[in-house]
Amino acid sequence: MSGACFRSEMKQLPLMLGKLLAGLVAVAGFTMAVLDVTRRADAPLPGIMAWLLLGAAGLLAFQRFSRSLVRRLSGEGNVSPAEARRTSLISWVILVLLALGFLLVSYLMTR
For this UniProt entry, which segments traverse the membrane (predicted)? Predict the structure, then answer.
């Protein structure tokens, strides 16, 4: 790995970690909302709304980090915009798969 490539990867690391954390927050927030609704019949609406807002904030942060990363990748010149978009699409697919996995686990736990 060349020095320039290593520096490029290190510049992207904070955005990638932020994207990972935002994705986990989104999945956790929506999962907790589903668990609240399915486990308790008298779940308080403010509690459910708080989890939903946390999930939405995680999605918004994920999108912001994703766009920043695409902008940074396309600005460096060593990655084409199409490749940067493909990288972004892959991360969205992984996020959706994680969310579906958590929903499946929460569904199976509440049966």
Answer: 43-62, 89-109
Candidates 61, 62, 32, 63; CA nearest to 47 is: 32
pLDDT at 33 over 80: yes
**By residue range, what is the domain housing residue 21?**
3-110
Q: How many domains does the chain have?
A: 1
pLDDT at position 102 is: 80
DSSP the chain: --HHHHHHHHHHHHHHHHHHHHHHHHHHHHHHHHHHHHH-TT--HHHHHHHHHHHHHHHHHHHHHHHHHHHHHHHHSSS-HHHHHHHHHHHHHHHHHHHHHHHHHHHHHH-
Beta carbons of 73 and 88 less than 8 angstroms apart:
no
